[in-house]
Specification:
The chain is about 40% helix and about 15% strand. By secondary structure, the protein is of the alpha+beta class. It has two domains: about 5-45 and about 230-295, no CATH class; about 50-220, no CATH class. The protein has a four-stranded mixed β-sheet, sandwiched between helices. Helix 9 runs antiparallel to helix 10 (about 285-295).
Length: about 300
């Protein structure tokens, strides 16, 4: 019996991608020769979108919503608090360029949402007006309203990040990313310098008011200009599934070739039922692969 959990995982993701393509998303069409690349593209896409779950909204003490933005903003807030999928409010590229890397999100972990009220092609109508948020597991921190031109001005992006940093000081451990404890004598980068280098796939450091240097809060961008989050998710997922395969082969080797269902107990996951039928095996459901793909 040829047991290959990684190949099974590739097939699982490709089946999902085919469904998304039917819905109009512009993913690469899976074939026998590109499954690995399709999986990486899919993981880039899901790490781009906030994990779907209800969140409580946090506002600055001086929060005021401009009248012209109220309708669109209230629709977005309702979706966030109910735990709906937020991709309809996100970048237009999420629909037609699943490999796209949102620099502001991947570097600073700041999300931007469009504030239209009309749905076009499964997305809220693109608007120049945006709402900026920072997400934790169960809360959404409103930062500010802005226009789309902000992404062409690094100085303005810096001001947005500083506003988040100042408005919610309790978020400091999350906002600053991992600290850097190496030598500082040769580091003399402004925020603008660091952001530009990061966009080009050069990992760099950011200095905050404690005069400590930190890596990018949003994990950053790889030298291949891909999302660091999705790259690490891919590596961790393949490693984890491979370990589960090794464990399964060791524990259940005597039962291979029999006709029965086996309840597999991978560490930290719900029971996984694998159906053995002579020389074939089949997962009873997609629990293992669903959790691997979406547990970020």
């Amino acid at each position: 019996m040829n047991i290959d959990f990684v190949s099974d995982y590739y097939k699982f993701v490709c089946s999902r991608v085919n469904l998304l393509i039917k819905d109009g998303f512009k993913f690469t069409k899976p074939n026998d020769n590109n499954n690995e690349e399709v999986v990486k593209e899919y993981l880039n896409w899901i790490t781009w979108i906030p994990i779907v779950q209800p969140r409580q909204i946090r506002y600055p003490s001086n929060f005021i919503c401009p009248k012209k933005l109220e309708n669109g903003f209230l629709k977005l807030i309702e979706a966030i608090t109910k735990g709906e999928n937020l991709y309809p409010w996100m970048s237009r590229r999420i629909y037609d360029k699943p490999r796209f890397v949102d620099n502001c999100q991947q570097i600073l972990n700041i999300y931007h949402f469009h504030l239209g009220t009309v749905i076009e092609k499964q997305q809220i109508q693109g608007t120049n007006d945006l709402a900026l948020f920072y997400f934790t597991e169960d809360e959404a921190y409103f930062i500010d309203f802005c226009d789309h031109k902000i992404f062409k001005n690094i100085e303005k992006i810096n001001k947005v990040f500083n506003k988040l940093y100042e408005t919610y000081p309790e978020l400091k451990p999350k906002l600053t990313g991992f600290p850097y404890f190496g030598t500082k004598e040769t580091i003399n980068l402004s925020f603008e310098d660091s952001y530009e280098l990061e966009k080009e796939g050069i990992s760099t450091l950011y200095r905050y008011d404690d005069n400590q240097y930190y890596f990018a809060a949003g994990s950053g961008i790889t030298s291949a200009k891909t999302s660091m989050k999705s790259t690490m998710l891919y590596i961790n997922t393949i490693n984890f599934i491979t370990l589960q395969e090794i464990s399964f082969k060791k524990v259940y080797k005597p039962k291979i070739g029999s006709n029965k269902n086996i309840t597999f107990l991978p560490e930290f996951l719900p029971n996984i039922v694998i159906k053995i039928d002579g020389k074939n095996y089949l997962f009873a459901d997609d629990k293992l692969f669903e959790l691997c793909s979406e547990n970020r």
